Amino acid sequence: MWWMRKLAKNVGLARLKHTTSSGNSTDQSLAIIGVPFAKGQSKQGVELAPDLLRQRNLTQVLQSVDDRLVINDYGNLKYSVDERLLKQQREHYSHIRNYADFMACNRALIGQVQKMLEQNSQFLTIGGDHAIGFGSVAGHLQHTPNLSLVWIDAHADINLHNTSQSGNIHGMPVSFLLEQLRGTWQHAGLDEIAPNCLPKDQLVYIGLRDVDPYEAFIMNKIGIRAYAMDSIDRVGVPKIIEMTLDALNPQNKIHVSFDIDALDSHVAPSTGTAVRGGLTLREGISIVEALRDTKRVQGVDLVEINPKLGSEHDVRTTVDSGLEILKSMFGYRRSGAWSNIDTGILG
Ligand SMILES: NC(=[NH2+])NCCC[C@H](N)C(=O)O
Ligand SMILES: [Mn+2]
Ligand SMILES: [Mn+2]
Q1: Atom 4 of ligand 1 has which residue's CA nearest to it?
Q2: Best substitution site from 42, 273, 305, 309 to test ligand 1's pocket, by max atoms within 8 Å of Cβ?
């Protein structure tokens, strides 16, 4: 920040350390991968979000939050569908939409996430629709088997291929990840592409308000911790955060999968399956701040921003909200940043 440097110079300060920083570690690096995947649902437009966020200066925005963070943008993910996946689709999964594309994209993403974590301390996956939550979390699990997952969403996205009413695979990624549900995808070869999976007690949902009957049945049956909007109303965000962190293994790294539709449609209108009565932006920020403050967040997804839905103003509002969430996720403090300033300015 030029004015701080100028101030430092004018007052003759010996050294002006970091002006805005969140952590004390020196080698923090964040990998970013865009996944322009839109075949998990039927509306065109979500594939434009990664490049739109870049146009809105995603890297610079995150850099301004933490000037020591090294940010590596790996561009947008590419994938190709092979005959084997087409065969799986034909023989077992033709009743859901775009299975082969889903698997091809997520297979590529699983490899990409592992590579990024070998080279960086954290990663951010930008969707695309939430179907890519599978590859992002599965890749994370292959690198870091002891992982906890916080899924912030209006929806549970835990449908099985034979319970989904829409056939949209963005409503199913969690069932590919959970130890207790993977067996329902027995023709998908999951043991090969993603042997490590998530035990149900390391998953917490926050923000639910549109859960399909079969999803509720499944969640209830296997006992999944879910803080839907009604619990948030009853006990408030601080208590929800406390219960979430109590539930998760304190030794584990954390993956935060943030579906923009978790936020209320006033602050995030440009999304394919908007549901009213959601989190305020402040509640969303509070939640990600608390998660960030654990210093255990290693992977983050931001999905379902659709720049083709709504007015220009709607799109701006939605992207702005997404950027605020990411800022807080990666270190922004609403109270200001001061802890690393050591100038001797007050003598
Ligand atoms: N990632 C999302 N926005 N998912 C919405 C899913 C909606 C519905 N439960 C379905 O399975 O089709
Ligand atoms: Mn979702
Ligand atoms: Mn959703």
Answers
A1: 171
A2: 273
Going along the chain from its start, the domains and CATH numbers come out as 32-329 (3.40.800.10)
Going by C-alpha positions, the residue among 33, 32, 28 that lies closest to residue 67 is: 28
Say how far apart CA 1 and CA 71 lie, in whole Å. Answer: 18
Q: What is the ipTM of this complex?
A: 0.98
Q: pLDDT of 142-196, one tens digit each? A: 999 999 999 999 999 999 999 999 999 999 999 999 999 999 999 999 999 999 9
CA nearest neighbour of 328 among 303, 293, 296: 293
Nearest by Cα to 128 from 99, 159, 102, 97:
102
Percent of the chain that is helix, strand, coil (3-state, to 5): 45, 15, 40
Q: What one-letter code names the amino acid at 323?
A: L
Quickly tell me which residue has 């997952």 as its tokens. 149
Q: How far apart are CA 38 and CA 258, in angstroms?
A: 17
Q: What is the pLDDT of residues 263-304, one digit of tens each?
A: 999 999 999 999 999 999 999 999 999 999 999 999 999 999
Cα angle 40, 227, 278 (rounded to 5 degrees) comes to: 65
3-state secondary structure of 144: coil
